Amino acid sequence: MAENSKPSYDDQQEIEELISSLPKGKGWHSSGLTLYQNFWCHSKFLPGVISFQRHFLARDSDFNPTEANANHPLLSSNPHALVRTLELGQSAGHAPDLSGFADPRLFGTHVPYDSLPYSIRRSRCKVIYICRNPLDVVVSLWHFVAQVDAGDRAGG
Asked: What residue intervals traverse the membrane (predicted)?
């Protein structure tokens, strides 16, 4: 399916059925997590991850670091305001139209490499992997899980 077409109701149903068949985390520390492609993903983000895999089409020109210059907005702005996080903008029933983005395109994701859409892995687009300090990851995870658990208890 092209990146600018909308997923069908059948696609949404298929994604929901797939998610319901996957292993779920048990215990306070893994509440709301689903095992997908050997990666524990929070269940509320998983439809977006799967939709991203199915509908995103990479371009060879998606990132060209040689075109960066001293006036580039990434050097003076918060990257989260400038770089689209792909799986957060998608759901089982909605795939945003990314075809209008000018080349070179730059996107962010938290999806592990093995779970990226096939079009990315087979294209010549550039992939930059950033790995954080493991202790920082554990501390961040603890805060994230506490925040998600608090939201779940509050009905959010």
From this structure: none
